[in-house]
Amino acid sequence: MIQESVAAALPGAISTALSASYSGKSLLKDPKVWHIDSATSNHMTGDSTQFSTLSNLSSQYDIVTANGSKLPASGIGSVSLFTNVLHVPSLKANLISVGQLVDQNCIVIFSPTGCIVQNLRTGRILARGIKVGRLFFLRLVANPTETCFLSIAATDIER
Q: How many Å apart are CA 13 and CA 6, to the nearest integer?
């Protein structure tokens, strides 16, 4: 009974979250927004333009959705800092798998306002996300860069 009520409420919750704005853009219309999903087994997207590398799969690989439908994956590659991302052409959302992140030596830290994805070995923060309702979203960039700011007081400089 609880599963049925959650399943009935999910489309509305997703619709509400997707219509929210993220950095001035609608989440629904921004192709760079990725959903952090603890129920998906692999990172995947239907948007081939997001891949920096993309190879065809050597064998048939089907994604089974929550309603039992099967979606064929056609390739695998890298998107931003994430590797082994499946290309599933008929998929309408971009999904980041929490399980795959953990398998790739990352942690995901969730908070009331958002989340971060951090590499355990290097300590590097790979992505930051926002929380909308009970859903978490990342906005990935094609070539992420790290920025270091340094400030020096005039008294620190020897003349």
A: 10
Query: 33-156 sits in which CATH class?
Result: mainly beta
Integer Cα distance of 157 and 11 in angstroms: 59
* Distance, CA of 136 to CA of 114 (rounded, Å): 7
> For 27-51, how does the pLDDT look when each residue is reduced to its tens digit (9 = 90+)?
656 778 999 999 999 999 999 999 9
Tally Cβ neighbours within 10 Å of residue 108: 19
User: DSSP character for 29?
Assistant: T
Q: What angle do CA 12, 86, 24 make, to 5 degrees?
A: 45
Query: Is residue 70 within 8 Å of residue 41, measured between CB atoms?
Result: no
Quick count: other Cβ atoms within 10 Å of Cβ 87? Answer: 22
